[in-house]
Amino acid sequence: MPGLVSCLRVLIVIGLLLLLSPVNSQSEIWTNEVSDVQYGRLGSNMCLSGLVSDVQYGRLGSNVTLECSVAPGRSSVEWRLNRSSALPWQHHVTSDGHLVLLHADHAAEGNYSCYDNQGLLIQTVRLQLGHPPGLLSVSCRVPNHNLVFCSWVESVKTHLPAQYHASYRDRNQVMPCDVSPPPQQRCTITGPTMWQPYHDINITETNPLGTQTTVVRLRFDQLLKPDPPEAVTAEGVVGFTRRLQVNWRPPASWPNDSGPFPLHVQLQYRPVGSKVWSTVETMDSHLLITDALEATAHHLQVRVQDGHNPDSQWSDWSPVQQASPWTRSTVQPTEVTPADYETDATTTPKPENLYEEGGNLGVVVLLALFAGIILALVSSLFVLMWMRHRGWGNRTKQELTSMVKMKSMPI
């Protein structure tokens, strides 16, 4: 009860002061109090239920001391955690009223209040535990020649609010890296000096328990990696059964005027179910495939690279697209009119059909010519053998006749 009376007296005094103060002063007071709680600076004691004026940070696993400003003549104090008179953690209270928490961990966090022997509130403090900063794991992404995005991950989970300062340095100068607002842990470099032999990224993390600086050395020209191409489409070409027309757009993060920085494009495609990719390259934003399999679906992907920097990285592949070449459709029979006859008579076959028919006719002619040559050779050989056999028979008959005549002659 005496504590409540004391609080009411303080509130009355504060109310009178606020009434006598300008409006701007009131705004400044509340702004400072919020800032103190957010960044861990000590503020003034307050006697408002549930509102903590002071924030104290401590290291996890260490002994943490909470001070209580005991007025002269007060012999003892009582500490409470979250309004409970029982303190669940190992502790002891010093002769001057300070509370010492032994090997504190997260279970010891909370709102601590100290009271005098008459039950009057002396001080309230909020305890938050964590670790000092450690080295950061830093990585950078370079989607084009004008931007560099660097991000980092804590190697030590500090459990405490932190502030970051980032910059980069090349051989000649130090330039800022603009840090994004929390909770993002990244910074952006605009207009980097791309063609320097090295770049040092410097990121400093600061929290209430300490400061740690991480420095990594990189080469932006080797990290240059465009985003994948966009709006990739593929479709068959009417009248051609083995062609696919593929189109795409440069990534949105690449400069619209790509003249100074052209993109080297690589397209890979394969029939669905095959494990072997065919690859073609170009500097354009479209490409015509002329050797697709007829009536077969194909998978296609596209990726890009800086056309002037062979040391840069290829982008990731675009999502897989599926397309099939044009196929002849079956035409349903319809009623034919004289006009239809005239139209059919004057219709010119498509170039590919002419090519295919001409190709088939050429094959037939070659086969017929080859067969004729073989037949002629066989016939000639047969005639020669027959003539030789006939000549041998005649000579044999003549020899036999001569022998008979010689035998019939008188000796």
From TrEMBL:
| Assigned keywords, A-Z | Immunoglobulin domain, Membrane, Signal, Transmembrane, Transmembrane helix
Domain Fibronectin type-III positions:
228-325
Q: Which domain of life is it from?
A: Eukaryota
Residue ranges spanning the membrane: these are: 361-387
Signal peptide range equals 1-25
Keyword Ribonucleoprotein applies: no
Q: Which Gene3D superfamilies match?
A: Immunoglobulins (2.60.40.10)
Q: Where is this region: Disordered?
A: 324-353
Q: Which SUPFAM superfamilies match?
A: Fibronectin type III, Immunoglobulin
Q: Which GO terms describe its biological process?
A: cardiac muscle tissue regeneration; fin regeneration
Q: Which residues form the Ig-like domain?
A: 61-114
Q: Which InterPro entries match?
A: FN3_dom, FN3_sf, Ig-like_dom, Ig-like_dom_sf, Ig-like_fold, IL11/IL27_subunit_beta
Fetch the CDD domains from UniProt. Answer: FN3 (cd00063)
Indicate the family of this protein: Belongs to the type I cytokine receptor family. Type 3 subfamily.
Q: Which PANTHER family did the record assign?
A: INTERLEUKIN-27 SUBUNIT BETA
- For this entry, the protein name equals Fibronectin type-III domain-containing protein
Higher taxonomy: Eukaryota, Metazoa, Chordata, Craniata, Vertebrata
